[in-house]
């Protein structure tokens, strides 16, 4: 399913802005950040594990929606119209995946994740922690699906709806814009959160 570029641009702009504000909060806290990391409760660690659980539930709901709509999709197919379901979270996760598996090999390498994380201001150690957390089956590799399963949806934040509507009302969704994410910043923030440094 193609998401209109104006909507995708708005969604990606919000995700980029959230990542930038998280980074600003991390860097402005300075020494406080290390103390906060030591006092972090479980809600601020295991971000990947939480995302994997949320994404498993979302996949289950998507499968149910597809099954419920199968007859309608088949009827539309009879008219030459291809219909399917997708989510904005999947579009977001797929865009991030392109940054770490640009050739579509089906596997995210440690090096490609490390390059993105360090380009966004994270460290090699944080990238390694993130990679290990993403390896759901413990085989030492991160498949494209494991990567996507490990990415939290930015659309579950309390302010997302307000931000999206405000951006659409202000003309923030330019139809001519090519939507893109700041993948390195987003992945570096995720690595820092997973390492307990955010």
TrEMBL record:
Region (Disordered): 137-161
Residues passing through the membrane, by range: none
UniProt feature, compositional bias: Basic and acidic residues: 137-149
Record-linked InterPro entries: EF-hand-dom_pair (IPR011992), EF_Hand_1_Ca_BS (IPR018247), EF_hand_dom (IPR002048)
Entry GO MF terms: calcium ion binding
Domain called EF-hand: residue spans: 122-157
Name by which UniProt lists this protein: EF hand domain-containing protein
Organism: Sodalis ligni
């Amino acid at each position: 399913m193609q998401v209109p570029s104006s909507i995708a641009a708005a969604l990606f702009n919000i995700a980029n802005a959230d990542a930038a504000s998280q980074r600003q909060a991390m860097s402005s806290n300075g020494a406080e950040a290390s103390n906060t990391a030591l006092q972090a409760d479980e809600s601020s660690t295991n971000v990947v594990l939480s995302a994997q659980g949320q994404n498993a539930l979302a996949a289950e709901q998507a499968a149910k929606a597809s099954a419920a709509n199968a007859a309608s999709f088949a009827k539309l197919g009879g008219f030459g119209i291809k219909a399917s379901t997708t989510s904005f979270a999947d579009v977001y996760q797929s865009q991030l995946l392109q940054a770490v598996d640009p050739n579509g090999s089906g596997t995210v390498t440690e090096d490609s994740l490390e390059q993105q994380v360090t380009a966004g201001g994270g460290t090699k150690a944080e990238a390694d922690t993130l990679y290990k957390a993403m390896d759901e089956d413990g085989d030492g590799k991160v498949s494209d699906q494991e990567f996507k399963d490990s990415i939290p949806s930015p659309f579950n934040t309390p302010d997302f709806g307000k931000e999206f509507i405000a951006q659409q009302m202000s003309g923030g969704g330019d139809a001519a814009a090519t939507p893109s994410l700041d993948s390195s910043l987003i992945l570096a923030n995720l690595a820092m959160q997973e390492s307990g440094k955010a």
